[in-house]
């Protein structure tokens, strides 16, 4: 995707998004490319559908001024430069920003994804966060991080044990209440808009890969931000804040189930990110991502501490002992 910021002589602003449809990559699973298995958007239809639905529900996604779905051209609202990560770096309160992000997710629970979203060229359905998508993401650890760590491919028996453990976890997550999963709800994609009333005080700019899945996923994306540190104390504080607010609105809220999903999906997401960052370094030469790996291992340790994830924790300890996780990768 490419973006250009447009400004008229009178000072009106907009963003031109140029995102032509991407061709499918090679088949990697059951004759399908990675993007299909993981349910990644391949054109702008998803961005328009999800953005319009969220905006209609009262959230701040960019307004659409003009769209050309066929050519992948969108003229959209410019929500400004107050990105959470940049605001925090300039001295803004992390607790205040991340609480705003938390409150927006509480509000989002009240709006289920529509069964179908109508566009000019037909209906769009939000894909499910299903077993296949979660599994192919976790296997990025074995496909990319393992060989970068050990210098050899992951053995078949190690992969089988890994997948067997995760399959049971995925089955349990599938039984959790479902809603929007925006998927990359973290500091680079959230914009501070204090002039707008809640929940519109948080601008959301990355949602084209949205799924229907556990409410816990976006929350762990926010509180275990891959690109900057979120202290464990702030994570615990906002987790309690979220649970307290949801309990007040939903008498049937299963706190234990949510805490398990939060921990398990934190492990799933951070496992995926380890694989992605290793892939970016190995395949694309983007070695800067390696600086984030110690943070990701730290977040992963938080999730693995959950009492019901001891078997998963044991696999990680056998495969990547804690004392060796800081060693350089073989890139």
Key phrases:
331 residues, two-stranded antiparallel ribbon, alpha+beta
Verbal overview:
The protein is an alpha+beta fold. It has 12 helices and 12 strands. It has helices at 34-37, 45-56, 84-89, 94-108, 131-138, 140-150, 156-173, 216-223, 232-249, 255-284, 293-304, 310-319; strands at residues 2-7, 13-18, 27-29, 32-33, 64-68, 73-76, 117-119, 122-124, 178-181, 190-192, 202-204, 211-214. It has a 4-stranded antiparallel sheet, with no helix packed on it. Strand 5 (64-68) and strand 6 (73-76) form a beta hairpin.
Order of helices and strands: EEEEHHEEHHEEHHHEEEEHHHHH
SS summary, helix count: 12
Give the spatial strand order of the biggest sheet.
1-2-6-5
Instruction: Give the terminus-to-terminus CA distance.
Output: 27 Å
SS-derived structural category: alpha+beta
Q: Uncertain runs with pLDDT below 50, 5 residues or more?
A: none
User: How would you characterize the largest beta sheet?
Assistant: 4 strands, antiparallel
Please tell me how large the radius of gyration is.
Answer: 20 Å
Overall pLDDT metric: 97
Bulk shape? globular
Binned strand content: 5-15%
Total beta strand runs? 12
User: What is the percent of helical residues?
Assistant: 40-55%
